[in-house]
Amino acid sequence: MEQQVVLSYDGSLEGFLSCVFATYEEKLKVADIFPPEKDLQELFSESREIITDPEKAKRVWSSLRKKTSSAGLRDIKYAFLSETNGIERQLLAMIRYIIAEDAAVDRDFSHPAVLKVAQVAKKVGREKHRMEAFIRFRLTRDAVYFAAIEPDFNVLPLIKTHFKSRYADQKWIIYDLRRNYGLAYDLKEVTFITLDLDPAIGISGAPEAFFHTSEISFQKLWNQYFTSTNIKSRANEKLHVQHLPKRYWKYLTEKNLPEK
Question: What is the C-alpha separation between 92 and 31, in angstroms, rounded?
Fold first, then answer.
């Protein structure tokens, strides 16, 4: 029986594409591909660490661009950022299929991997749009607007352009507490950062130790406004949850401050 190999990589898209390159360069029969935090134990399989090579990754992506629609490329990016277990294996199968065929097949949903990648990408796209809609900034004592998030998927790279465009006139940070990294905008560029945050900073609300007093007063006023305009007798909880799932309530000021 031909030996299969389990590949590990650094968790980046470039790292994954370097794995794809290695499968062609070395004619590897791949059992699975894992980011660093995953268990690499696989029965009857050899483990290999693939070092990220930007040039090799670029060559793979260039090959895909020649044979893949913009929707297909988007699905590959989105699905990769989902961090779903086994998504690298599905992506590899889809990429191999695309490269092997003469015709465009990235929308061929009869292929299991293409269908799976598209389904996962759709979920990530939905999460991206909800983060863009529900993120609430709080003004810190350092005059920087701060928002903490805990999305199901790694959507920070996908919302970067939206927030740079929408909030171009103020300094801000959006921080993913689950993945411990964030975006920081300094009125010129958006950069990726890591911070040693106090857990007390929370998702919403405004602890006085961190946030400007005007922010605390504003959040209280907003909560009072929301409470006064919310007519309980006309509330449709089922419809409300349909449009605003409960797992996003933690981001909303009106859902997290006590009524006055």
Answer: 11
- Quick one: 170 and 201 in the same domain? yes
Q: 16 and 110 share a domain?
A: yes
Boundary residue ending a domain (71, 102, 127): 127
Confidence (pTM): 0.81
**123 and 149, same structural domain?**
no
Same domain, 111 and 192: no
pLDDT at 238: 62
Are 117 and 160 members of one domain?
no
3-class DSSP string for the chain: CCCEEEEECCCCHHHHHHHHHHHHHCCCCEEEEECCCCCCCCCCEEEEECCCCHHHHHHHHHHHHHHCCHHHHHHHHHHHHCCCCCHHHHHHHHHHHHHHCCCCCCCCCCCHHHHHHHHHHHHHHHHHHHHHHHCCCEEECCCCEEEEECCCCCCHHHHHHHHHHHCCCCCEEEEECCCCEEEEECCCCEEEECCCCCHHHCCCCCCCCCECHHHHHHHHHHHHHHHHHCCHHHCCHHHHHHHCCHHHHHHCHHHHCCCC
Q: Are residues 182 and 165 in the same domain?
A: yes
Range of the domain at 32: 4-127
The first and second tokens of residue 54, run together, are 């930007």
pLDDT, tens digit, for every residue of 131-155? 998 888 888 888 888 888 999 999 9
Is the domain of 103 the same as that of 165?
A: no
Q: Which of the two residues, 122 and 43, has the higher pLDDT score?
A: 122
Residues 244-249 have a mean pLDDT of: 63
pLDDT > 80? residue 222: no
